[in-house]
Specification:
The protein is mostly helical and 449 residues long. The protein folds into two domains: 183 residues, Arp2/3 complex 21 kDa subunit ARPC3, CATH 1.10.1760; 222 residues, Orthogonal Bundle (Hypothetical protein af1432). Helix content is 67%, strand content 0%. It has 18 helices and no strands. The N and C termini lie far apart (85 Å).
Length: 449
């Protein structure tokens, strides 16, 4: 069945590629545009298809990339047809957006190359102008890669403006004439930064993606959901913070997006806000709510926190990338505690099916969501250790990671055995630091005066 689905995806992808190729060539003929432009676009698409054969590994959607490409083409085309100076084209907007939105230098480099071809072709094959914008595009990719602050984008625009003016001076062989052109290019860089800053939220919404800047804003503990967790489910809140630390460190070790994993971990258990008292980390010493429930009813309450979390995320309009962490953080794993209780209480004529005590899924399909699932299980289990020595923590971490692997919970993601070993090492180091042994201080005795 999986092979059939995969074949269907490949067929649809090839049909879409052929249709897109025909449409691009047709539009070029109608608009009397040099065929170099559609050919460059088609080659870019084909290269990316081969570079990311696995669809789940793509940090982008081809339609989104083509949309960015078309925007630059349309702006440059209008500027050229109106007889305005092409120096007025905010060229670096597209490379900067591609880098920030997709967080992938290879992708942003390729779109910079294709965009430079547009400039060269639409300006009567002005090679020097194409090289000028190619240089500034490469620089903009580097300056905003991994950006976490909005003012960094403005600073990048300022630097790009200076470099563009300097590059034009080199092209003119230091014979400065028409000084307004240099001022124009300097202003072009600054304006590009301002435009990116303004349109970034729009493109995040259109592309259903999330940037480091938005992630850091969601890390603000004054966010309504996190604020509610602090007040209504303090145990879950503390658990989520530790899961965030574990996920951040582990994703950093395997080259995944550590910031995305951290923020995803903060929100992964928000569904527990519906019935916080039914989860062990929020229960008081007075009693356990599940003592009065049957195993089947307890299982429903526990499993429903995933569905409740998704509903709460939609209510607060969380980004779809964060909703993934809520949906995937248990995969289709077994609610073992209540499954075992059900087996203990079963009567002779009853049959307890394991499938009834499994989460509905889906399984995690990215390195980040899989890491959060592992961190969630490891942190919860570490709390149950009576004497959390480094040796016991190491044994526990390896046991849980191996069980998740054997149970097939990691089948849909790209984690390798080497990645799992690195993740386990990080978990062991961080948990050993949290649960380290403490010195018993003697009571302070005051001498009588």
């Amino acid at each position: 069945m999986k092979k059939l689905v995969k074949i269907n995806k490949v067929v649809r992808k090839n049909i879409a590629l052929l249709a897109g190729t025909f449409l691009a060539l047709l539009i070029s003929v109608i608009l009397k545009i040099n065929l170099v432009i559609p050919v460059a676009l088609i080659l870019l698409v084909i290269y990316l298809q081969f570079l990311y054969l696995n669809l789940s590994a793509q940090p982008f959607r081809l339609l989104n990339l083509i949309f960015l490409f078309v925007i630059l083409f349309a702006v440059t085309y209008v500027v050229a047809r109106q007889g305005w100076s092409v120096l007025a084209t905010p060229f670096c907007v597209i490379p900067m957006l591609a880098t920030i939105l997709f967080n992938e230098l290879v992708v942003s480099l390729l779109i910079t190359v294709a965009s430079s071809i547009i400039i060269t072709t639409l300006t009567a094959n002005n090679f020097y102008l194409g090289m000028l914008f190619f240089t500034s595009g490469i620089l903009s990719n580097i300056l905003v890669f991994g950006v976490r602050k909005r003012n960094t984008i403005i600073q990048a625009g300022f630097i790009i403006g200076i470099v563009q003016a300097a590059t034009l001076l080199l092209i003119d062989q230091f014979r400065m004439y028409q000084p307004e052109r240099y001022l124009f290019l300097f202003g072009n860089g600054i304006v590009s930064g301002i435009i990116v800053l303004g349109v970034l939220p729009i493109f995040e919404y259109l592309f259903s993606t999330i940037t480091n800047i938005s992630l850091l804003e969601l890390a603000d503990f004054n966010h309504p959901i996190l604020n509610r967790m602090m007040l209504e489910a303090p145990g879950t809140y503390h658990h989520s913070l530790i899961v965030g630390n574990l996920s951040d460190g582990a994703c950093g070790a395997i080259g995944a997006n550590s910031l995305l994993a951290r923020i995803g971990a903060y929100y992964h258990d928000i569904g527990k806000l519906q019935k916080p008292e039914y989860f062990s980390e929020n229960q008081s010493i007075k009693g356990n709510k599940h003592d009065a429930l049957s195993p089947s009813m307890s299982k429903l309450v526990i499993m429903n926190h995933v569905k409740d979390g998704v509903e709460l995320a939609h209510k607060y309009k969380l980004n779809p990338r964060l909703v993934d962490f809520i949906q995937y953080h248990h995969g289709n794993s077994l609610v073992y505690f209540f499954y075992r209780r059900a087996l203990e209480n079963v009567e002779e004529d009853q049959e307890i099916k394991e499938e009834r005590f499994r989460y509905p899924g889906p399984k995690p399909n990215t390195k980040e969501t899989a890491t959060v699932m592992l961190a969630d299980s490891v942190e919860a289990a570490a709390r149950t250790l009576k004497e959390p020595t480094p040796a016991k923590i190491e044994e526990l971490v390896h046991k849980i990671v191996n069980n998740k692997f054997i149970d097939g919970q990691l089948d849909e993601c790209e984690l390798t055995l080497k990645d799992l070993e690195k993740i386990s090492s990080v978990f062991i180091r961080i948990l050993s630091g949290i649960y380290h042994a403490r010195v018993n201080y003697p009571d302070e005795k005051r001498e009588p005066h």
